[in-house]
Write a structure and sequence with these properties.
alpha/beta, five-stranded parallel β-sheet, 10 helices, 18 strands
């Protein structure tokens, strides 16, 4: 036997009586108005907030005590007078009328209970249709504090996307699909924003990069379509133009699409091109920033890209062609993404542009991944050192005096030969 039979009540436009005018009655009135009920308050006196609602015409008010007959026509009754005799009187009248009654002062006297409620919008973009929400109601054996704790835990899961939110049954309302360009960060699942995870939880289609946090795909529903468009150096099986077309095609078919990228969509992520392609077809696009690997991967190796008294700025590049155009001092950090194959050319170009050959360099492989490793040297020898230990992509290269701050750097690193390259195989700093 269960004590209650849980239901959701549609009270919009229907009369609900609230007996009492204090703080508890105010909470009941607020919830009922939000659900569209026609609310009548019966109480000699009411708190200022209820009085304001009455003055606006949002609530009816009978300025007296409760009398038998006051419940006629009501679909539901809440009594919260603070007087056990009055509350029992209301509950008895409601029983005779076969009207469900919530008694705030004595749950045993009532025939209904108010649960702890959490609500979250499923479609909460700037043009989301009204009413698309998930409501969770928790009852806990008339233990409201326990119900509230459970409610709060569920609400947190709905907010951060760890609980499933994707629509399964169509609601009959036709609407265009949407695209979210989600920055997945440097690869660790814990470095994705809450907003990014929430959008993944509601996606119909996920278009994913090679360096995105792929562990998040394991928690998607079996009916979520995953499109792998991953690129490797020199091998782009799905051209960028086709990736943009895929986003448009799925969104025009009414699907919600997440474009899950490594790092940040706007840091060499082609996010601007994808946004333009979608908007040119009238598709709503949301851009969710991500933790860029240009900053986070060096941090994982214990290397800050700026540091007071050492480096006052930094530049982020993807190759060696533009290195001559960035500030030339060793106090200006250069961060290179996707530059492993061009490391020797880049080092020579930086020296030619005026940086000392003794400038410290670190190459951090697979940041936040299982094979994270840091190799350090100087512009004069980093290419040889990297080749000697077999550095491979993905890797982030840091050039500048900040490299000396990382634990992989030692006093003789600048003069060690390639055969004695200094390598730190384990993550130097835990970043979260």
């Amino acid at each position: 036997m269960h004590e209650t039979y849980p239901l959701g009540l549609r009270v919009a436009g229907r009369l609900v009586i609230v007996v009492g005018g204090g703080p508890v009655a105010l909470r009941r009135v607020g919830g009922l108005l939000a659900a569209g009920a026609r609310v009548r308050v019966i109480a000699p006196d009411v708190v200022a907030e209820i009085a304001a609602l009455v003055a606006r015409g949002a609530v009816e008010h009978l300025t007296r005590g409760y009398l038998t007959g006051d419940l006629d026509g009501a679909w539901l009754v809440h009594t919260a007078t603070g007087d056990p005799v009055v509350d029992a009187h209301v509950a008895a009248d409601a029983e005779l009328l076969r009207t469900f009654c919530v008694t705030a002062g004595d749950a045993e006297a009532g025939t209904a209970w108010v649960p702890a409620v959490a609500r979250t919008r499923v479609d909460d973009g700037p043009v989301a249709p009204a009413g698309r929400e998930v409501t969770v109601a928790v009852t806990a054996g008339r233990d409201p504090r326990r119900a509230q704790r459970v409610r709060d835990a569920v609400a947190a899961g709905l907010t951060d996307g760890t609980l499933p939110l994707r629509r399964v049954r169509p609601d009959g309302a036709s609407r265009p699909g949407r695209v979210a360009l989600v920055g997945g960060g440097p690869g660790g699942a814990g470095l994705v924003t809450t907003r990014g995870r929430r959008l993944l939880a509601t996606a119909d289609v996920v278009v994913v990069d090679r360096l995105a946090p792929r562990s998040l795909l394991a928690v998607l529903g079996a009916d979520v379509e995953v499109v792998d468009v991953g690129k490797t150096p020199g091998h782009h099986p799905v051209p960028q133009e086709r990736i943009s077309e895929l986003l448009v095609e799925h969104a025009l078919a009414g699907r919600d699409v997440v474009r899950l990228k490594g790092g940040d969509p706007y840091v060499f992520g082609r996010g601007g091109e994808e946004l333009e392609a979608c908007r040119s077809h009238g598709i709503e696009v949301e851009v969710v920033p991500g933790v860029t690997s240009a900053v986070s991967v060096p941090a994982a190796a214990g290397i800050p890209v700026t540091h007071r008294g050492v480096a006052h700025g930094f530049s982020v590049l993807t190759g060696h062609e533009d290195v001559g155009h960035v500030p030339g001092g060793t106090d200006h950090t250069v961060v290179l993404l996707m530059g492993v194959t061009r490391l020797a050319d880049t080092a020579r170009a930086l020296v030619a542009a005026g940086r000392p050959a003794t400038t410290p360099v670190a190459v951090v492989e697979d940041g936040f991944g299982p094979r994270q490793r840091t190799t350090v040297g100087t512009l004069a020898d980093i290419a040889e050192r990297a080749a000697h230990v077999g550095v491979r992509a993905p890797a982030v290269t840091v050039v500048g005096d900040v490299v000396r701050l990382g634990p992989a750097w030692t006093g003789d690193a600048a003069s060690t030969t390639a055969g004695g390259a200094h390598v730190a195989a384990a993550p130097a700093v835990r970043v979260s």
